[in-house]
Request: fold
Amino acid sequence: MMGLNIKPLHRSAAFATAIRTPRAFIPAICCLKTLASLSALTCFLGLTYVSAAHAGGSLGALSAEEKTALQEPFRTTLEKRKGPFGKNVCVCDDGRREPVLRPDGTIQNACGEKHQFCAAFRAPWAEALAEQGVYVGNFFANDAFEWTEFPDHHNLVRGHVLEKYFTDTHPDHKLATAKTLRGVTGAEYEAPARGVFMEKYLALDSFDDSRHFLLAYELQRRSLVHDNVGGIDKARNMATRIEQQDSEFKPLRDAVHNQISAALIPRLAEYQDQKASAEVAKRIDGLIAVIEKLTTLDEDAIRPELAQVETPEVRSRLEERLPDHDATPLEIVEALAQVMALGREAIAEGSLSPADTRRLIDVNVIAAWAIHSQGSAMLDSNEPATVRDYLRFLVALSEASYGA
Reply:
């Protein structure tokens, strides 16, 4: 596709390759909308395998034995109170996993200060699904810790994307409610572990920008939370205070404690409208404001993200393209489109560190949301626009598409 600052032949070849392979897993997302019972499992599993077919293997129907091997552990996952999760443990600095429930019946962190994180790992029935390439019960901290045990990390990332989409859109399903149980993970662990997990993925020798960029982009897009431990603690404390005042708020309190994301906001708003008293509703307003700050995606959030990029020439090149504070919506869209395209070009060159690659993908995620916001405002306004304005807008969208 043509762009302002990208060589046309390079853009065309790279973009064509990019959309030919990683988006093979996107049909699975559409199919997941029907995943409410075991009868839908075949659809989920079949399209999970479609997502891996671009690697060059043949795709055939599941045998009766394969279906049984998958249906049994999935049924168990739906029946268990904790879904795909086993016992809560704390992982000590030396790698030991100490159960939170101690032999004397008390609940405590046996690692004390010297622990990496506390969480619930996949139970045997979830591991049985993972052995077939179907990943549920996904958490960044757990999977980064067990990284070397996974045979196909691209399939693992697809599992994260698919489950994240499904649990965000089906918050009452067992796969979603299990993730809100107290102790299965912690937002203070997941936020930093996201960076560790993604950098491990981006550092793989098998990571091919033309084939796997969209996988990384999609997972980072669905999990972006600004690395603000103070803000995360504030949200957790606010959720606890709300639960102390309203015991029915407990599932949402646990969800906030476990993994903060923008997907929590509509759930909090729904509770606020339908169940909360006036005083609790006011507290929920405050909690929503904190989560919005942690998950805000607009052009103002790009500068601090870019400032963390450690490759000076790339950082300065992108900072030069950032829009001025008095720029018009169209000028903002054009500037951010250039940032996205140039960021993707830098990633495609393959010389960046995994950390800088992750940072630039986060920049592109934020820029894409800002373009959507500014573009919508421009199109919805009553300000007159010329044909030239619309052509500039379309060229900018074309350019931005290379980076998303």
Remarks:
- The mean pLDDT is 85.
- The radius of gyration is 22 Å.
